[in-house]
Every structure is written in C-alpha cells, then in structure tokens.
Amino acid sequence: MTNAVNGDLPILPALFERALYQLREGLHELSTSRFPGLRTRHYRLLGFIPDDGIRPARMVELSGLSKQALFQALAPLEAGRYVDVTLDPDDRRARVVRLSDRGHEVISALRDMQARYEQTWAAEVGPERWATTREVLGRLFGH
C-alpha cells in the first residue's frame, strides 16, 4: 500500500481520505437520485441539527464555519425546504434552525447509506472488528 510511513502502515490521513472518498461517492449518488443540488457541506450541516432545532451560533461552533459562510450554506437548504429558520420562541432576537419533513428524509437516507457502507466494511474485516473500530471512532470523535 502506498502512503506508508517508513514502510510501515499507511499514514492516517490517507486512510481517512479513502473512507471519506467512499462516503462522498454515496452522497453524490443521493444528490443525483433524490436530493438535487445538495452538496457534501449541506449533508454535513443537516447532520448538526437536533430534533428540537439549533441556533445558528451553535452551528457556527460545531461546523467551524464563519457566520457568513454558514448563512450562505443554509440559504439553499431553506430554499429547498430542507430546513425551517424561525424566530426562537424563547428569545425573539435569535433564530432557530429545524429540520423540515424533507430534511428528515435526508437524514434517514444518510443513515441508510451509512448502514450500507458499514455493512460492506464489516463484511470485509468481520463484524466484531468493525464494531470495535466503530466504537473506537465514536469514542475518539463522537459526542
């Protein structure tokens, strides 16, 4: 395998990039078949939105985007009716972003796509090894 450090195991960025490449292919397929116009960044942002909604300021923190970049990315999501942006009932100066029914469809499709990839990877390395890998990734990078 290429991208090895001192002839040993491949370097982590190369491994993660390969996994991300496969997942991005799945996202492109979703955009082509079901959700025209959505890009990788849109799927990522939709994944930050909990059922009870989220303030844009919190999305800025989670995403690492600037406020301006976030609002630019949210505009097509709102126009495509994937999200609803409304006044926060607890603080009328603030806004809240919530998934619409269509946004929930996207999340469901993402989960299905992810499950297919995880099944493929589990078949490749064995279910127990994949479960351990998944648990470790969740521990390191999850919430």
Topology:
Blueprint: H1 12-33, H2 40-46, H3 56-63, H4 67-79, E1 83-88, E2 91-99, H5 101-125, H6 127-141
Antiparallel strand pairs: 1-2
Query: Helix fraction?
Result: 55-70%
Using only C-alpha atoms, the radius of gyration works out to 18 Å
Determine the mean pLDDT. Answer: 92
CATH fold assignment of the domain at 40-128? Arc Repressor Mutant, subunit A
Please characterize this protein's 3D structure.
With 143 residues, the protein is mainly α. It has a domain of 89 residues: Orthogonal Bundle (Arc Repressor Mutant, subunit A), CATH 1.10.10.10. Helix content is 63%, strand content 10%. It contains six helices and two strands; from the N terminus they run ααααββαα. It has a two-stranded antiparallel ribbon. A hairpin with a 2-residue loop joins β1 and β2. The mean pLDDT is 92.
Keywords:
single chain; about 140 residues; mainly alpha; Arc Repressor Mutant, subunit A; two-stranded antiparallel sheet; 2 strands; about 65% helix; about 10% strand
Provide a short characterization of the protein structure.
This protein is mainly α. The chain has six helices and two strands; from the N terminus they run H-H-H-H-E-E-H-H.
